Amino acid sequence: MDMAPAAVSSNPRSVEEIFKDFSGRRAGLVRALTSGNERIGVSFVLRADKENLCLYGLPNGSWEVSPPADEVPPELPEPALGINFARDGMQRRDWLSLVAVHSDSWLISVAFFYGARLNANDRYQFCPVAHAGCYSLFQSVAWCSLRA
């Protein structure tokens, strides 16, 4: 897990490339919110000096907690800012669910950001959620909390 600001490491241009980017980012977020959720809390505590922290899923299937991008406008849509603030006033399970809902929204916005560049034919085929054939991050976190 890298603590540097998230960088754009891919620029998908086809439906398949966008889905691969979406799948990698989703896999990283699933790991962060399920098996890695202890480390997320530690990451936020270690970075307590930062006001707004974001959870990023990366195209390579990893994740990171870092401040938002400095440039305005950012190269990509940004995840929810300041998710570290809500953590202290909530039960851990509820906080992880909140982060998961915001992460689902961010994943879709990144995919549609790339999808906007597709031609009409490709846009017709494009829907990352339908292609994913998987649960939302929120559902994954809820399922894991039921097992615990």
TrEMBL record:
Subcellular localization(s) per the UniProt record: Nucleus
Biological process terms in GO annotation: chromatin organization; regulation of DNA-templated transcription
Coiled coil start-end: none
The keyword Repeat is annotated on this UniProt entry: no
GO MF terms, alphabetically ordered: histone binding; zinc ion binding
InterPro entries: Alfin, Alfin_N
A Pfam entry, by short name: Alfin
UniProt keyword terms in alphabetical order: Chromatin regulator, Metal-binding, Nucleus, Transcription, Transcription regulation, Zinc, Zinc-finger
Occurrences of domain Alfin N-terminal (ranges): 14-126
Top-rank taxon: Eukaryota
UniProt keyword Transcription, yes or no: yes
Listed GO CC annotations: nucleus
Annotated signal peptide: none
Function: Histone-binding component that specifically recognizes H3 tails trimethylated on 'Lys-4' (H3K4me3), which mark transcription start sites of virtually all active genes.
Domain description: The PHD-type zinc finger mediates the binding to H3K4me3.
UniProt cross-references to PANTHER family, sorted A to Z: CPG BINDING PROTEIN, PHD FINGER PROTEIN ALFIN-LIKE 2
Complex and partners: Interacts with H3K4me3 and to a lesser extent with H3K4me2.
Family: Belongs to the Alfin family.
Protein's recorded name: PHD finger protein ALFIN-LIKE
Upper classification of the organism: Eukaryota, Viridiplantae, Streptophyta, Embryophyta, Tracheophyta
